[in-house]
Amino acid sequence: MNSASKQIPVLVLAGFLGSGKTTLLNHLLRACRGTRIGAIVNDFGSIEIDAMTVAGRLGDSTVSLGNGCLCCAVDSSELDLYLDRLTRPAARLDVIVIEASGLAEPQELVKMLLASENPRVMYGGLVEVVDAAEYDATRARHPEIERHLAIADLVVLNKTDRVEEAELARLRASLGTGAAVVESSYGQVDPELFFDPKPITERIGQLAFDDLLDDQEPGGCAEDHDHHTGCRGHRPHLHAGYESVAFTSDVPLDPRRLMAFLDTRPEGLYRIKGFVDFGAADPRNRYGVHAVGRFLRFHPEPWTGERERRTELVLIGAGIDAPALERRLAACVTEDPHETPAEHAMWGVLRYVPEPEQDEGAAEQNDRPEQDEQLSRDVQEPDEAGEFGELTDPVG
């Protein structure tokens, strides 16, 4: 896909005032490792403190929306105006983060993003940041936080350094969300949870300052790290808060079996990425997979001579059963790679493939009508269990 038609994931970063959204965003900017990030920052107030903080790192790649809430816009056209600026090919961005105001309704932002007519944007997930030390007080003041947690794709439980272990366990149990939950202090979360860092061979310019820092945050100290818990100069590995499963297969996958797996993927599984070989079901193409929470998209692309035909998937989440996921994926392998598949075997997959002409610049509004309609209903009216409804069963 060329730069003009490249789709850029757009991540919504939400959370009530003081939860640590800007701290998390600034951490992502420091630890991006050459990945080019754009930001839409929505302060509520006439002095745009958050926007100024982020703009110091991003410059022209920041769009500020001061003194109001983006989710109060009448329709998605206002959001498209900001996205148009950041998704132009000249900006060469890899990911866009919308930092919502602490008073924003995240479900409205998600609906606006799904309704966007910008063909270069792709839903990247809703991340809800929660202040662990103030959660009970926040829930008392803002009971709507339970609704926000119900629709989140990922929950970042921030400021856990201020909470005792027993209280933290109680808090996790009380969140009542089926989303993946990761813990953090000072907003330090591995960027690979949100986007794929750019390989060092693809980075532009000389070695970046964050490469030299080796991801160390400011404020390091020379004290004994065994007892100095407040030191951030030598932090624990950020990937300790989540798990990943790598699955490869030289035998093609059965499209119906894979769709059955995707329709019933477990709680805590946040992202799925990689490529799938469906063998005789579509011998000409491999299929890129992009799944965030309940959002799913396939992107077919022709096989080339230098590519080895195989399936390679990475699944990322928190509290997941890695061996069980591996067994379920292994069960998706076709029994006879040379057998001619059923006529409608690919229908379930193709429902999540955008129309070819829309990848080339036509409006994206209609490339996923059923999925966007389903997600919009789920965002507006989560079920009693507080989760998104499952994806519609595959056709055929």
TrEMBL record:
Disordered: region residues: 353-396
Sequence ranges of Basic and acidic residues compositional bias: 365-380
Keywords: Chaperone, Hydrolase, Nucleotide-binding
Keyword hit for Glycoprotein: no
SMART domains reported in the protein's UniProt record: CobW_C (SM00833)
Catalytic activity: GTP + H2O = GDP + phosphate + H(+)
Similarity annotation: Belongs to the SIMIBI class G3E GTPase family. ZNG1 subfamily.
Name used for this protein in its record: Metal chaperone YciC
Protein's organism: Streptomyces hundungensis
Record lineage: Bacteria, Bacillati, Actinomycetota, Actinomycetes, Kitasatosporales
